[in-house]
Design brief:
3 helices, single chain, STM4215-like, about 140 residues, alpha+beta, about 20% helix, six-stranded mixed β-sheet
Length: about 140
């Protein structure tokens, strides 16, 4: 059964809200002008329409960019390692698993991949970041 009220904006907001349950992690449903780490930014999705017959379902592939402290800071690496873990209080995957409907914004969501763990330049500063792929069905 399709989630007829599912919208890109609603799903982005649901993702940001669900990730906001991770203590100390800021979230943004849209790309902020001046992100303040640690932050999880929900990027625009790739969308596959009509994944089921009769407009039964669309599938979305969202990228969540997690940015932490400076790349040279040991604490930043420990922090991002915790976000990358599949389990635990700070786990991106565990947060999504705790509310796979993203507060009712979709039928289901799950983290399928973590990639691009490394440095990211924002302005004149190098941060440590990782990208998470979240597959959403609505």
């Amino acid at each position: 059964m399709a989630t007829t009220s599912a919208t890109v904006t609603g799903i982005r907001t649901g993702l940001a809200s669900t990730l906001g349950t991770i203590r100390g992690l800021r979230t943004a449903a849209v790309v902020p002008e001046d992100p303040k780490p640690p932050i999880a930014v929900v990027m625009a999705p790739n969308i596959s329409y009509d994944s089921a017959f009769g407009r039964g379902m669309d599938s979305y592939s969202f990228t969540v960019l997690v940015v932490v402290g400076r790349v040279s800071d040991r604490t930043a690496q420990s922090t991002i390692d915790a976000y990358c873990s599949g389990v635990g209080t700070y786990s991106i995957k565990a947060a999504i698993n705790s509310d796979p409907t993203l507060g009712g914004a979709c039928q289901s969501a799950r983290v399928t991949e973590m990639s691009n763990y490394g440095s990211l330049s924002i302005g004149d500063t190098e941060y440590l970041s990782a990208e998470f792929t979240v597959q959403v069905y609505a």
